[in-house]
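[agent] plan:
  1. take the single chain provided in the ticket
  2. run structure prediction with default settings
  3. attach structure tokens to the ticket
  4. add a short note for the reviewer (M.T.)
[agent] executing step 1
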Amino acid sequence: MTFMTPRVALGDLDAEAAAALVSAAADIALVVSPEGTVLDVACNTDDIAREVGDGSAWRGRPWADIVAPDSRTKTAEIIASATDGRAPTWRHVNQITPRGTTLPILYSAVRTGPRKHIVAFGRDLRPIAALQQRLVDAQASLERDYTRLRYAETRYRLLFQMSSDPVLVLDADSRRIVEVNPAAEELFGAESRPQVGQDFLSIFAEPARRPIELLLAGVRAAGRGDDVRAMLGGSARPVDVSATLFRQDNSSFYLVRLLAVAVTDELVTPGRPKSKLLKLVESAPDGFVVTGEDGRILTANAAFLEMAQLATEEQARGEALERWLGRPGVDLEVLLANLRERGPVRLFPSTLRGEYGAQAQVEISAVSTTNGGVPCYGFAIRDVGTRLATQPNSQREMPRSVQQLSELIGRVPLKDLVREATDVIERLCIEAALELTNDNRASAAEMLGLSRQSLYVKLRRYGLGDLASSSDQP
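[agent] step 2 finished; step 3 output follows
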């Protein structure tokens, strides 16, 4: 659409105003003669002005001489279209600057005035070209990423298919089978082969489903879980089940490995490395006991039997460990509670009573594990009576902080705990008074409201200071 009344609207427009209008309407404007010679140049952007300069290098030269060879035909077509008075069309021209660089310009031309000069309006295409180049680069980058992903998927799928271990992929929410590799299909056989979409727990015998369910729940909650030994439903074959959690496309999946158990393993005949380890535990000088979840002994080594004054392991098997350990109903319960809630226990002080009245001071370290999905506990028991007897002060060392006092709860009777708490406070007050008085015993006694003799008695009791070289100057 063109102006309806140009003479009324623009009739008083002089040459300067028209030039300003043309310059404002285009990034670059050329005034060209009908023969194709550039008469004048105007630039509206600083970028183009820096490239073109003052335009003197273009003025008086044919337009076709200052464009790329592939654009010379286009300039001739633009001039011919404007001369004939045809509707202006936009053509892409590569303009050669005085510096020798190329400017991509989109030109459209109109004929003006009685001299039939042609005004070519140009738009800078470099921003559009840069945007197009970025789009091309982004598309190429995406193609490279897609290619790498396809190669990676091919490699991992090949590993999944060629793995000698039976592997299944499960949906973490429904626990249904998503993928099965050929090794897993071979493990189950043709008749009981697991199918995609089948409930994973259904491929196992009924007693083994609960431990496996706990394994998957533990892996999802903590990211890891102990292997579980289970029995397959169809073939009644034992397998060790391990699981790993991973995410893909905002969904969670389990990677489950089934390792067939050899007959020798199922009969609890250990391999050579495990056999050596068991022999070392059996002949260790410290007692070692394994109990079930209820605290009843499953197995014990010779050192424990000696400390408990037992002749054979059968005398201990099936009995509660608290029969010989610490105070009945206290020490073992504290140990089991810590194992369930906090994990391994180290150097827990207690006593061990023998069948014939012998008693020993012991330190206990304990750890929990699972056996076929059922928790069990191991206790390493060390006799420390000889070590305590060789110390200068055979009495138990008094706790030195509130934290150490809190650790005695459940091990020491309340009346002893209160007495030790009082001793701790009294000793701390004496230490503070000695520090404030620069170890002046007379001033410290006065500060504490004690006689000097009473202060000396308490210093000897708590083993504070060097009484032989005391300086009690007031």
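[agent] step 4 note for reviewer: The first strand starts at residue 28 and ends at 32.
[agent] ticket updated
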